[in-house]
Write a structure and sequence with these properties.
This protein is about 25% helix and about 10% strand. It is of the alpha+beta class. Among the domains are: about 35 residues, no CATH class; about 80 residues, RRM (RNA recognition motif) domain (Alpha-Beta Plaits, 2-Layer Sandwich), CATH 3.30.70.330. Strands 4-5-3-8 form a 4-stranded antiparallel beta sheet. A two-stranded antiparallel ribbon has the order 1-2. Strands 6-7 form a two-stranded antiparallel sheet. Strand 1 and strand 2 form a beta hairpin. About 10% of the residues are buried.
Length: about 375
């Protein structure tokens, strides 16, 4: 069942199980109790969690509230109990006045839940937030602030505590210095930043070397059987480089080859395609009626419906200018007989006596 075991710096033991079935065996409380009886009464099993840094979380969020975390699971589509714990990265006492958001660490029970947050984000206190994997960082002794990784504060050979803020001989939590001008970095021997600052050049160099040796830092998600989780961080860096190169690429001027800029040409092309699609859709509609300043009447329909006396009328072509006669009442018509109305109405902005007839239509004075 157990393939390997090793001691951890804090005194724990990490066991490697041979299969997923064996790991699920430990999820049964009775099996856990039976296994722990061999180690003593004060020994517990700590399940593996998958940590995510969620950025810009509203400070109104209470990470220690089980009800709030259960509501986040429900809104995010996570399984019940998926969030094992949550905490703020920076202590609340170090926040600046009127700070509205902060970064938090959320520990998930399974890879599925962690990957779901990495892909789709979460809704916390009415705000959509997104996260990234919490990568393992180089271990820094909180007593001497060394990055060599050979010891922790409990095993530090140094006699006195060194402050990570001002560099004096006292514990960092008791430091009264809050002015960045008096910060001091022990590792860099510099006054420009504190020892705990993430902008520390020593920490940045150690962190980059640590990531190169870590396989977990090569993937954006926690790898599973699903190929979508195999996306590497190299793919994101390539996309960002392509976007950066496109932003700094010089744009052609308006006078290049006598053509407008590429963006304007693309807009014209897209507008032309939209217009063509609308025209095709309108032509395919059998119920479409032309609407405009001057409506056109099909010649076939007009010739078929002309009165017998006007069958021999000349239908103008596209280059013919015709005069629209004013409809007059027949001498034999009675006063109560309705007057005829022309089928083609000229535009109100043009002269009522002389009009340019649209192609394919003919002026008609009235009906017999």
């Amino acid at each position: 069942m157990v393939t390997s075991a090793r001691h951890l710096p804090h005194g724990g033991i990490l066991y490697e199980i041979e299969s997923a079935e064996s790991a699920r065996w430990f999820e049964i409380p009775a099996n856990r109790s039976k296994f722990l009886t061999k180690f003593g009464n004060d020994v517990t099993i700590k399940d593996r969690t998958y940590n995510i840094i969620v950025e810009n979380v509203p400070v109104a969020y209470n990470p220690e509230s089980p009800n709030i975390n259960a509501d986040i699971e429900k809104k995010g589509g996570l399984k019940q109990g998926a969030i094992v714990k949550a905490k703020w990265i920076k202590p609340i006492a170090r926040r600046i006045p009127n700070q509205r958001t902060a970064h938090a660490i959320i520990s998930l029970k399974s890879k599925e839940s962690a990957n779901q947050i990495l892909r789709f984000g979460l809704s916390i206190e009415g705000k959509k937030v997104y996260g990234r994997k919490l990568l393992t960082e180089p271990t820094r002794c909180l007593k001497c602030h060394s990055f060599d990784g050979s010891h922790v504060a409990a095993e530090c050979p140094q006699e006195h505590d060194v402050c990570g803020t001002c560099g004096a001989q006292h514990h960092t939590s008791t430091c009264k210095v809050d002015d960045p001008a008096f910060y001091h970095c022990i590792n860099c021997n510099s006054q420009s930043h504190a020892t705990w600052s993430r902008d520390c050049p020593t920490f940045a160099a150690k962190y980059e070397n640590y990531k190169k040796r870590s396989d977990d830092s090569k993937y954006r998600f926690f790898p599973m059987d699903d190929p979508l989780t195999w996306e590497t961080t190299l793919d994101d860096s390539m996309q960002s480089n392509e976007q950066l190169s496109s932003e700094v690429r010089p744009q052609p001027s308006n006078t290049d080859h006598g053509q407008p800029p590429r963006q304007e040409r693309g807009q014209r092309y897209n507008q032309g395609r939209r217009n063509d699609a609308k025209t095709q859709q309108r032509n395919n509609n059998p119920n479409h009626i032309p609407i405009g300043t001057q409506s056109r009447i099909p010649i076939d329909w007009l010739m078929k419906n002309l009165p017998p006396s006007n069958k021999d009328a000349t239908v103008p072509n596209d280059n013919t200018t015709a005069t629209t006669p004013t409809p007059t009442a027949s001498p034999n018509a009675s006063m109560n007989e309705p007057q005829s109305t022309p089928l083609w109405f000229p535009s109100p902005s043009r002269s009522p006596t002389q009009e340019q007839t649209p192609a394919g239509s003919a002026p008609v004075s009235g009906w017999d």
